[in-house]
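Tokens for chain A. Residues wanted.
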């Protein structure tokens, strides 16, 4: 009797796990939305080895350690443009992650049930790499570099916090590994 009901049991289990997975996907999507809201609201943190942490708030004001920098209107505009470029890059990443999350659970359950989990893991890794080397992502990273360079020309105190170079953008475009330590 158990043998005859095995396909039905496996089907029911697959539906149950998919429904539970969809709920998990919803939780992940809500967490991504929460992270996005926090990113837009909270100061953008920056760090540099041997230097106190720095931040740029939503108005463009800068703090290094506990000291607030006195900035001209033009300097504040540059720090704000840099902050907005970083947020745009992170927003793009979160959008792509949310899209992937909506489909991952059901596909993972199917891969587990069919014994193709290794293939699924490789496919997810490839999708992640494709995202981090997509033209849209590389262009946003390039914008961060341009805004960062303009910001540190205007606010020299932030030079130690400038970590992203054109080399990372070039590696992004070429599909090579890179480190964008923003």
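Reply:
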């Amino acid at each position: 009797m158990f043998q005859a009901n095995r396909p039905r049991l496996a089907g029911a289990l697959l539906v149950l796990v998919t429904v539970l997975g969809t709920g998990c996907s919803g939780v992940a999507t809500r967490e991504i939305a929460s992270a996005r809201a926090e990113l837009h609201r909270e100061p953008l943190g920056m760090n540099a080895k041997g230097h106190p942490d720095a931040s740029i708030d939503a108005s463009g004001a800068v703090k290094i350690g506990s000291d607030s920098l006195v900035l001209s209107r033009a300097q504040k505009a540059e720090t704000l443009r840099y902050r907005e470029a970083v947020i745009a890059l992170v927003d793009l990443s979160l959008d792509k992650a949310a899209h992937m999350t909506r489909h991952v659970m059901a596909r993972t359950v199917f891969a587990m049930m069919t014994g193709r989990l290794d293939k699924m893991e490789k496919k997810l890794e490839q999708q992640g790499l494709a995202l981090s080397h997509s033209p849209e992502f590389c262009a946003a990273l390039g914008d961060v570099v341009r805004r960062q360079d303009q910001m540190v020309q205007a606010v020299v105190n932030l030079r130690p916090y400038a970590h992203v170079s054109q080399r990372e953008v070039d590696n992004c475009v070429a599909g090579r590994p890179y480190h964008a330590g923003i």
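The first helix runs from residue 2 to 41. The radius of gyration is 22 Å.
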